[in-house]
Amino acid sequence: MKKIIPIIAIIPMIFLALTPPTSIVLDCSVNSTLWLWATFFSGFLAFLFLYQKVSVWLKLLVVWCFVSSFLSRAPFISFTAYWSIIVCAYYYALCRKIDDWSFVLKSLQALFLFLCLLVIMQGIGKDTLLNFKHATPAITSTIGNKMIASSFMCILAPFLIINPLNWIALFIISFITASSGAVMALSMGLGTLLWVGVKKLRWVIVAVILGALLVAALSGDIKTFFSKAGRGPVWAKTVELCVKRPLGYGIGTYHVLFPYMCGAEIRDQAPGQEWNTSHNDFLQVLYETGFPGLVLLLGWIVSIVRNVKNPLKLAGLAILVGTMLVHFPLRVCQCAFIMLMFVAFLERKSDEFKHKTADL
Q: How far apart are CA 354 and CA 350, in angstroms?
């Protein structure tokens, strides 16, 4: 049975990764029998999750998300959104049962090679799949705009960096997509790898950081963090609203509530930009689940870091954290399963990165 667990786990991940950009609407009737059944069942699964062999921080986070739905400013949205949290929680529990990761690593490497081919074809104007007859590609990779595509590559990166050539490809893609956020995340990973694994070359970290800042400045993306129409004011307003409601506004409510609560000073600076996400997963978790939710999430991350010794694994985690700081991978269904699988991979005691390198 254990031999087929990696196959079962990788199928939904690859399916989501290869799903072209599409709109999906979940049409539910408030308090219908079906909706109530699904909500009751998800609540039961939340408490059943307490008996899974996972971190106590995660157990409490899963239960708190359900409890906070009762306190939500939009309970129907929160209870409906919670269904996806339960799916992710048990997917993570499934990934924790994987013993042999070779099939997973090979599958994700194959996925990366396929995505690289798509990016190349799109770059030279030969993409007849997603951008046929488009003078300027509207879709990058399989997933959407350049920023989302670069973020998705960073989410794949923790599984790919065991191969040095993948580092080069990842940085090239981040430059092609002109994503300073991706460059920053990859630089955080590379800096962590050098700091932990090659202590004699720690001076290189300073050069990497300065290079990343230079790229961000030259690309112009760094302005989005300081301009009135950029992320800075949105982050500040998000924190201000969180202080007013420390238990959170409810999971899944940011994209509905924040555009109306942010004030004219933010809406008028960027007409048409509704800020459906905060472009910072940690702040959005704080907004939706309150300070209890953020503390539980950070506690889970810290508990993982304390038990991980392998430099490559720590570098992968640094890339994920860097991406979460400036993008919104937790809000992209193609990214969520990959992130959860990598965290499960981190918590394995055996050192698969060393053992599996020769297989790739």
A: 9
The sign of the CA dihedral 9, 344, 53, 101 is positive
Amino acid identity at 114: F
- Note the Cα 342 to chain centre separation in Å: 11
Q: Among residues 228, 233, 222, 235, which one has the least CA distance to residue 283?
A: 235
In the chain, the amino acid numbered 51 is: Y
Look at the block and give the residue holding tokens 């949105």: 234
* Contact of 289 with 65, CB cutoff 8 Å: yes
Once rounded to an integer, what is the mean pLDDT over residues 142-157?
Answer: 87
| CA–CA gap between residue 327 and residue 144 (Å, rounded) | 14
Token pair, residue 273, equals 């930009």
Based on the number of CB atoms within 10 Å of its own CB, is 256 exposed (0-12), middle (13-18) or buried (19 or more)?
middle
Rounded (10°) CA dihedral 75, 76, 78, 81: 170
Beta bridge partners of 184: none
Task: Work out the mean pLDDT of the chain and round it to a whole number.
Answer: 85
pLDDT, tens only, 284-332:
999 999 999 999 999 999 998 888 888 899 999 999 999 999 888 888 8
Alpha-carbon separation of residue 86 from 26, 65, 278 (angstroms): 16, 10, 23
Helix, strand or coil for residue 161?
A: coil
Is the pLDDT reported for residue 157 higher than 80?
yes
Instruction: Write the pLDDT tens digit of every residue in 40-96.
Output: 999 999 999 999 999 999 999 999 999 999 999 999 999 999 999 999 999 999 999
Measured in residues, the chain has a length of: 360
Alpha carbons within 13 A on the beta-carbon side of 30 = 5
The residue among 313, 300, 311 whose CA lies nearest residue 342 is 313
Q: What is the DSSP string of 49-99?
A: GGGSSS-HHHHHHHHHHHHHHHT-SSHHHHHHHHHHHHHHHHHHHHHTT--
CA 108 to chain centre: 16
Neighbours of 265 (CB within 10 A): 10
Residue with tokens 């720690």: 202
Tell me the residue type at 153. Answer: M
